Amino acid sequence: MVVTLAARPRTALLFASVLSALVVAVVAVLDHRHTRALLEPTFESAWYCANRGTRCDEPQPGPIHERWEIREYTYKAAFGLSALTFAGAMVGVVRSRSR
Fold first, then answer.
1. Domain ranges, ordered by start, for the chain
2. Which of 3, 17, 26, 99 has the fewest CB within 10 Å, making it most exposed?
């Protein structure tokens, strides 16, 4: 007798929520590393722009950081939704097994 995840929707939901949380976490870390790599060269040009009035046409760290913060909130919300889904599915599994 083969039991598939489709036969156990709560278990499938548990696996899906764990997998989605893992994917969100990995993507967030990779995106943060990429953003830091983009930000590093902009600090120098920001200093020159603020103190010497030159290199102001080069990318500045402010807009890059603001875009990162928006994405960071999105990652946190997606991870929280995955955790909430996991908790709800886990409660369902425990209740169904205790009957």
1. 24-98
2. 99
